[in-house]
Amino acid sequence: MSLFKSIWDDLQYSLRAGNMVTKLVVVNFAVFVVIKLIYLSMSLFTMGKADGMYDNMLGYLWLYADLSTLAWHFWGILTHMFLHDSFWHLFNNMMGLYIFGRIVSDLIGERRILPLYLLGGLSGALIYVITAQFFLDIGSYALGASAAVMALGGAALILAPDFRVHLLVLGAVKVKYIVLILVLLDLVAIAGTYPAGGHAAHIAGFALGCFFVFQLRDGRDWAIPVNQACQWLGGLFSSRPKSKFQRPKNAPPMRATFSQSKSGTSRSDGAEQSFQEKLDAILDKIKAQGYESLSQEEKDFLYEASQK
Question: Does 193 fall in a domain?
């Protein structure tokens, strides 16, 4: 029992202290292990005839193509992007999540990882359901994090196309080649005889990731409303009592004092502007020359910026 307790403690620590990329990987692996343990239990109980029961169980979690069925299993729009039935499907997606997620996290901040993941999965779900209404050979359901991972891949492509990733056997490969090959494979699958719905969903996730970064550069951060929604949902299930602060009746009124520079702007505004200008310059340098061209000081600054 001590072994299982140790594993449980490790999972809790990863979810509590790990970054968002680690948390998403752990959650996906945990869901996979749980459903396989349930399948094992079903097989032992039914003497190896659990496939029908197992499929029925997964049916509560995957994304249905049929609109009438989807209406009664609407939560599948979210749950399908954390569900994998094949180990290699899971492994490939988690490798992509780790590689692209770390790049995106370092460049635009950890707090944008979960929004990108969710928005990519949702855009893929939308395109899958739409295409299913016109093409009958795309399958009756979808599952997996591929569209969500491709959203992170699209973001990494725009942010740092020349960043080198060290792959087994192939060695150092630039991000732009990895992502574009994945996109090409999906396009070939759509044009061929393979079920095209899932691959169209991957392309939708990729496009969402690219557009997310373009919007961010124009000053529109799509991560903000997504994070606010997640915090609101988390608050519904939180058992922590909300702290209520009440000022004493006889307390003097609170006042805020702002220091002005000679030019009329506050020092904090000037510092914020200087910080943003330096960050923009580093991001432009990455786009033009690649991440490896940064000095150690610039890498340290970028890392500190991603933690804010």
Answer: yes
Instruction: Write down the pTM of the prediction.
Output: 0.76
- Of the residues 187, 214, 234, the one at which a domain ends: 234
For residue 149, count CB atoms less than 10 angstroms from its CB and return exposed for 0-12, middle for 13-18, buried for 19 or more: buried
Domain range spanning residue 274? Answer: 267-308
Query: Which tokens sit at 226?
Result: 């997504």
Please report, for the chain, how many H helices and E strands are present, in that order. Answer: 13, 4
Whether the CB-CB separation of 125 and 201 falls below 8 Å is answered with yes
Helix (H) or strand (E) holding 187: helix 175-191
In a domain, 255, yes or no: no
Domain boundary among 186, 217, 234: 234
Asked whether residue 186 is assigned to any structural domain, the reply reads yes
Report the pLDDT value the prediction gives residue 253, as an integer from 0 to 100. 47
Query: Is the distance from CB of 149 to CB of 206 less than 8 angstroms?
Result: no
pLDDT confidence bin for 194, thresholds 50/70/90: low
